[in-house]
Amino acid sequence: MPDEHRLEEKFISQEAEKRISEKLDEVEKIEIDVKTDLLKIAQGQADGVSIAGQGLVIQEGIRVHEIKLQTDSIAINPFSALFGQIELNQPVNAIARIILTEVDINRALASDFVRSQIENLELNVDGEIVSFQPQQIQVFLPGDGKIECRGKVLLKEMGNTRTLAYTAIARPRTHSQPAMLESFNCTEGEGISIELVTAFMQKAKELMNLPYFKWEDITFSIKDIKVEIGSLIVMVETQMKQIPSSSDILSP
């Protein structure tokens, strides 16, 4: 009987791998393991789903070097599951470990999708709206838990627009320490006011103290970030109302 169950799991897992691979622009390796059997499928149940992937390109410019994801037991659509399509009947909790390389991050920052998300950032500075339009962003991961960022922005304040270039070094928040800004230097332009720095730091604090973030049908919280030389390792807890396809994630 266990062998029969394993054959059922293998068939559904292979069909799921095929479907997800078809939705990705590129994939070096992907393995999906659906823990279930025909009786549980008929009842709309599965003990869990694990996903391990390498070199996943969701869309041009958006690449994940490595991901490992494990869900709790899930309630699924039994008819779609037989064809390898996992449709959730109830929200499911999952834990994911994601690795992004320095090259991945900078490639994503230069993509049209990410640029559209950060096209115009606004801050309220003593009742006046100040906007930032990022022009260039480049991230470096030198190790020792540090992230270095270099970039240029168009700064619009008091009716004037000017270019500001900067370098910043920060340590991300982890399970054992808060986020830390080690240095910020203006390398081009006239610098920025103390009021603007204060407003920016307050906004950053608000974002970092949010208990969770929500994107489409996914609620997620970042539990830990580890910075190594050339790579970023992120531990994430999520609750998904539905497992999205790449087209769902990147739709406007």
What's the helix count?
A: 7
Range of strand content: over 45%
Major sheet: arrangement of strands: 1-3-4-6-14-13-12
Give helix % range: 25-40%
Report, as a whole number of angstroms, the end-to-end distance. Answer: 47 Å
Output the radius of gyration. Answer: 22 Å
Shape: elongated
Strand tally? 14
Largest sheet: 7 strands, antiparallel
- Structural class computed from helices and strand pairing: alpha+beta
What's the number of domains? 2
Series of H and E elements: HEHEEEEHEHHEEEEEHEEEH
Mean pLDDT level: 81
Task: Briefly summarize what is shown.
With 252 residues, the protein is α+β, with helices and mostly antiparallel strands. 25% of the residues lie in helices and 48% in strands. A hairpin with a 2-residue loop joins strand 12 (213-215) and strand 13 (218-228).
